Amino acid sequence: MRYCINCCIHLLPNDLHRQCFRCRGPNHNNQKCPVCKGESKIPLYTDSKQMKLLAVLEVRTDHSESWNGFFCLRKGKLCSLIFGLIIMTLVMASYILTGAKHGLLLIPSPFHYGAFTSNPSLMDNESLSDMKDHYQPSKINISYVKDYPSIKLIIDTITSKIEFITRQRPDSEELRKQEPHMFSVIPNKFLPNSKNPCWYEEYRGNTTTDPYATNSYALYSKRFRTIFDYLRKVFWNHLYHYKDKHYRLRCLPHFYIIGQPKCGTTDLYDRLRLHPDVRFSAIKEPHWWTRKRFGIIRLRDGFHDRYPVEDYLDLFDLAAHQIQGVLQSEAAKEHGKMNNIVIGEASASTMWDNNAWIFFYDNSTEGEPPFLIQDFIHAFQPNAKLIVMLRDPVERLYSDYLYFASANKSVEDFHEKVAESLQLFENCMLDYSLRACVYNNTLNNAMPVRLQVGLYVVYLLDWLTVFNKDQILVLRLEDHASNVKYTMHMVFQFLDLGPLSEKQEALITKSPASNTRRPEDRSLGPMLPTTKAILRDFYRPFNTKLAQVLFDDAFLWKRT
Questions:
Q1: Membrane-spanning residues where (predicted)?
Q2: Sign, CA torsion 496/499/505/508
Q3: Distance CA 88, CA 85 (A)
Q4: Among 17, 432, 468, 532, which residue has the fewest nearby CB atoms (within 10 Å)?
Q5: What's residue 111's pLDDT?
Q6: Is the CB of residue 24 less than 8 Å from the CB of residue 18?
Q7: Which phi and psi (to 5°) does residue 45 adopt?
Q8: CA-to-CA distance for 306 and 289, rounded, in angstroms?
């Protein structure tokens, strides 16, 4: 196509070029044209290929253009507008149909947001007196307070559906059918002269065999390869030889710190590991019982190969070597000295995360999981001890959001996510039981914030169906933050640990707090007052039941 650069700056189609005011058809001649006469104009050639212009063209405004050209321009803009509206309509229709299909179509949140007070010094492990200063009420904006009843109706619906029904505990034969390999590896009885559950297992490899070659923790995580490199070097030095056979000492944890996330479990772990009689797994949070044994690294990434129980037991080899040293010492052989070293494991998902059950176990008619994590732990370790650290579920949820949200964090965004999660939880409660919704993998993945993790009493009651109450120590982060020494003494007594020197006790109780809130998260300040009021209403019936179960009104978290 050939266009005059002087008059066809908009590159009109070839068939319209004849109507151009300054050009009278494709045979335009610069010398004869009254406008172009005497000027050296450069014709512009175009084709279907993409073009890069390396010059800036000067556009001259001429008010004497014909109405035909003007009409063409208006017609082009109108077509573009209509086309854009059609595309927008199609996109909106696709979104609505997709949301309806998955049951995720939500009513927009009716809330408006008021002012909030920023406080950069707020931390996860702060004392009660500190938190009282941090959470002074902000000035209330009437616009969103008027909308409070709307979301209160959702909470009232949820509350009306709450029923704490005792679950049916599966028998040992049902458990054995589900995990036959696990039952073939872990024995029914442990060594009588060890406080920690341990046993000797025959090792059939030779000196050239790498005992950790197939360990999934070593294969999938570069962080742990240094640990396993060390274990390879010392492995053969810790084998026990008896009647021309080699045996290795295997151990399970004596106690588990089972939850909850963002409740101070890391700080408890860091202090407890300083006790001379306590050892932990090579990895703080193996998440084996809840995720890795199902092949879950991140649920959103799908499933990998399942981690066998041997991979989990490998994580306790460092501690097992030290226990073996005690058992094979002269004092143990001559005087029957008891091993008092105990091993702990601190996966904060153990208490609550049963999301994988629906993919591996037959579904029940009520949508509730037929087997839970505690069923299997109790089957192997009926005498295990369990430690739970809890905090105000309202503050736990906000801390959880700040820690795990990747971008665009704000108190307004948190509020929106809370409202959306409550609507999703209500939809589930209209059709299913409380337990079915709490352990519902689809719902838990759909909720923008993890509301369900703060329903402490639901999980605790399920653990109490298999373990005795005196086997579970429940602590509050607020108490731990205000008096570390007191809570640590409670833990030492619960685990029946040996006495400490003044220097050892000072090291444990006076060390700085672990895993505090990041500075960039502290700068956001507290949540909106309306968000806090909504969450307090939601968690109130669950806290009330928890206080009744534990006979302690401190778990009502009445502080506002």
A1: 78-97
A2: negative
A3: 5
A4: 468
A5: 34
A6: yes
A7: -105, 135
A8: 11
Other CB atoms within a 10 A radius of the CB of residue 237 amount to 7
Highest mean pLDDT among 9-13, 25-29, 328-332, 507-511: 507-511
Do the beta carbons of residue 199 and residue 345 sit within 8 Å? no
Beta strand 278-280 pairing with 245-251:
unpaired
Q: Per the structure block, which two tokens stand in for 271? A: 């202090």
pLDDT, tens only, 388-426:
999 999 999 999 999 987 778 899 999 999 999 999 999
The pLDDT, as a whole number, for residue 27 is 53
pLDDT at 447: 95
Query: How far is the first Cα of the chain from the last one, in angstroms, to the nearest whole number?
Result: 76
Tell me if residue 54 falls in helix, strand or coil. Answer: coil
H helices then E strands: how many in the chain?
24, 10
Is 275 strand, coil or helix? coil
Q: Using the 8-state DSSP alphabet, how is residue 303 labeled?
A: B
Q: Hey, which residues does 3 pair with through a beta bridge?
A: 44
Which fold would CATH assign to domain 172-554? Rossmann fold (3.40.50)
Please tell me the predicted confidence (pLDDT) of residue 93: 66
C-alpha to C-alpha distance for 337 and 193, rounded to whole angstroms: 7
- Token pair, residue 377, equals 């732990």
- Tell me the per-residue pLDDT of 169-195, one tens digit each, with 9 for 90 and over: 999 999 999 999 999 999 999 999 999
Q: Residue 23 and residue 36: Cα distance in Å, rounded?
A: 10
C-beta separation of 530 from 152 below 8 A: no
Quote the strand ranges of 120-237, DSSP E. 198-203
Do residues 495 and 255 make contact, with C-beta atoms less than 8 angstroms apart? yes
**Cα 51 from Cα 186, distance rounded (Å):** 72
What's the pLDDT band for 366 if we cut at 50, 70, 90?
confident
Pairing of strands 198-203, 255-259: unpaired
Distance of CA 90 to the CA centre of its chain: 34
Q: What is the DSSP string of 67-122?
A: HHHHHHHHHHHHHHHHHHHHHHHHHHHHHHHHHHHHT---PPP----------TT-
Torsion sign (Cα): 421, 520, 297, 452: negative
Measured CA to CA, the distance from residue 109 to residue 371 in angstroms comes to 37
Q: Where are the domains of the chain?
A: 172-554
**Residues linked to residue 249 through DSSP beta bridges, in sequence order:** 200
Phi, psi of 316 (to 5 degrees): -105, 10
Whole-angstrom Cα distance, residue 58 to residue 30?
Answer: 18
d(CA 340, CA 278): 9
Residue type, 390: L
| CA-to-CA dists, residue 342 to 97, 186, 312, 437, 502, angstroms | 56, 18, 17, 36, 21
Q: How many residues does the chain have?
A: 560
- What are the tokens at 153? 């109706």
